[in-house]
Amino acid sequence: MLVEDTFDMAEAIMIRLDRSGIACDLAKTLEEARSLLDVQRYDVIVLDLNLPDGLGTDLLKELRLKSDRTPVLVLTAEFSVDDRVSTLNSGADDYLVKPFDHRELEARIQALYRREQGDKAEELAIGDLTFNATARVVRLKEVPVNLTRREFSLLELFIRNRGKVLSKERLFEGIFSFQDTDVSMNALELYVARLRKKLSGSSVVIETQRGLGYKLEVHD
Question: Alpha helix (H) ranges present in 40-148?
Answer without folding.
Answer: 56-65, 81-89, 102-117
